[in-house]
Amino acid sequence: MMFVIYVRHEEQMAYTEGLLYGGNDTLFESTGLFGESSVRKVDLQTGMVEELQKMDDSLFGEGLTLLGERLVSVMLTGPAYDQWPMENLTVFQLKLLFQLTWSQKIGFIYDQKNLSRLGTFNHDMKEGWGLATDGKVLFGSDGSSTLYQMDPQTFKAVSKQVVCYKGHQVQLLNELEYVNGEIWANVYMTDCIVRISPNDGGVLGWILLQNLREELLEEGNIGIEVLNGIAWDGEQKRIFVTGKLWPKLYEVNVFPTKEPIEEGVIEQLCLPIIF
Asked: Which UniProt keywords are listed (predicted)?
């Protein structure tokens, strides 16, 4: 089952790269495209953008995640701190948003409350695509079949797992979300979400959502792109999904299929061919 939660106004359409639920009927969203990338706070009920932090035009925003309140050391940047370099490193107790960029191998740290930028970080993935957390470690994707686990203090990879399904690598892992002990990942260029075990990278199952994009196309939304964006409300057990340049956000209820899926269907729908 699916429910339309909100319909975006045209001026609020987004090339969604990262999506998460922040509590109190609030979503946080990272948007992409050079010249248009941003981080924004969105009202879940209306779709209205309440706060927005635009990125430099040279940057392409990607995955986004939120770590719970904790003490963190952050290197502050800007003219106000340049004259006191020894005092740039300070400690905050904040709820922090971490955002990846596509090809620059850098990320940004924001205060969840007002989206003020607090600092930057570097990572050792090939590119930045998806980002999620279980509250202890960061999970990252770089468009390959590799699921990274990273130390949230150093952003260095502590483990790498290749995600495979029936002997085939699941390439183009994109946006990530931690859901009830699993990693859910959009598979780029498909309408599929793959459920991954964070313990060994094994595929636990698939969520097929091709009906959402098909419905949008039938309604005349010819400019939409692929499914991308998963947000999990752990308290109320709600899953929200959207896509790049989609006018709608959906709440979906996931159920097992009544009939077995025919052999080869998942490979055809969910495993993109890499040339």
From this structure: Transferase
Q: Which domain holds residue 106?
A: 2-270
- pLDDT tens string 146-200: 999 999 989 999 999 999 999 999 999 999 999 999 999 999 999 999 999 999 9
- CA–CA gap between residue 153 and residue 238 (Å, rounded): 29
Tokens 């409350």 belong to 113
User: How many domains does one find in the chain?
Assistant: 1
In a domain, 182, yes or no: yes
CATH number of the domain at 173, please: 2.120.10.30
Task: Please indicate, yes or no, if residue 275 is contained in any of the structural domains.
Answer: no
Residue 201 inside a domain? The answer is: yes
